[in-house]
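From: lab user (bench 3)
To: helpdesk
Subject: output format question, protein + methionine sulfoxide

Hello, I'm new to running complex predictions and I'm not sure whether the block I got back is the full result or only part of it. Here's what I submitted:
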Amino acid sequence: MVHADAANFAPDVTKEQAYEQVLDQAEGLFFEQRNWVCNLANTASLLWHAYKSLPAPSNQVNWAGFYTLDPQSRPGKPQLILGPFSGKVACQTIPFGRGVCGTAAATATTQVVGDVDAFPGHIACDGDSRSEIVVPIVVVPSAGSGGAEGRVVAIIDVDCAAPDGFDDVDRLWLEKLARLVAESCDWP
Ligand code: SME
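Helpdesk reply: Thanks, we reran it on our side. This is the complete output you should expect:
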């Protein structure tokens, strides 16, 4: 049974421990639940509360959530559409290749941006954001599907009101989270 205590983080946890708890709790919440809206909504909540339990700069996170591949994208023009998140209201759609999110989606690679003002094409949804990490969520085809490439179905986006808010620890754990989320949901 789901319990809100899943999002309670001890005040003295390290960043690694907080992410470990996010992964463990997410895995539990995904048990017998593959709906992507439901699972991304709970994961956004876990991330938000994890960051708020940590010292600076992590507790300066001002947006944590997801964009998913927009099923209404025009042929040959894939775009992201806003998914579940915690934080202020945000841009609804982002074309692949635009901004930090669109770059991560188009290249299927994690983007760690220490200073968003120095990132060409950064989309400023919230003027408070100073740094950002975006991790692609890639569904890997099952064995025997003829060597088809992975499909970017969504991205994890986290913004921080402090510069250089993210490091290799964030990258490592958010990439683990992206793999868990990719395999735990049925994607449209
Ligand atoms: N800054 C992002 C847009 C999304 S918001 O940060 C929530 C970007 O440049 O892609």
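A quick orientation on your result: The two ends are 26 Å apart (CA to CA). Let us know if anything else is unclear.
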